[in-house]
Amino acid sequence: MEGPNPASGSEEEMVERAGRTFWGYLGCELIRRDARETVVELDVEERHMNLIGMMHGGVHTALLDSAMGLAAMAARPDEDVVTSSLNIHFTAPALAGRVRATATVVHMSGRMVTAEGRLYTADGKLSSMATASFRVIERKS
């Protein structure tokens, strides 16, 4: 990604820039991002469903990747990070309604950040969980 780190600047500026990307297309909403945890929510609509009426696995994955990526960016605010691997487990279906993704950084090394994320249904049931590694890359100017 070229230009300034999307995690830099104000939270409002970051959300405004993100709204023009895949994040905005999905309909993600940043609830909270701090040094400890990132929380993202999504109102699950028909367009997010698979053919049997559950939230599509790709939406689970995109939402968790986004939340974990924001957590990784918060941990390395002066650098850029990109997903290098992601592993996901689906534990229960998510149906229409609001879902919440939480993400935390669990490990950092020189050029890598490892995060974990969990996606919960509106009634608090764990729907999926993931881990991801993010590569710290050279900032493009």
Automatic annotation (TrEMBL):
InterPro entries: HotDog_dom_sf, PAAI_dom, Thioestr_dom. Residues 53-126 form the Thioesterase domain. It comes from the Bacteria. It is an enzyme of class 3 (hydrolase). The keyword Hydrolase applies. Keywords: Hydrolase. One of its GO terms (molecular function) is hydrolase activity. The keyword DNA-binding does not apply. Its EC number is 3.1.2.-. This is PaaI family thioesterase. It comes from Cohnella hashimotonis.
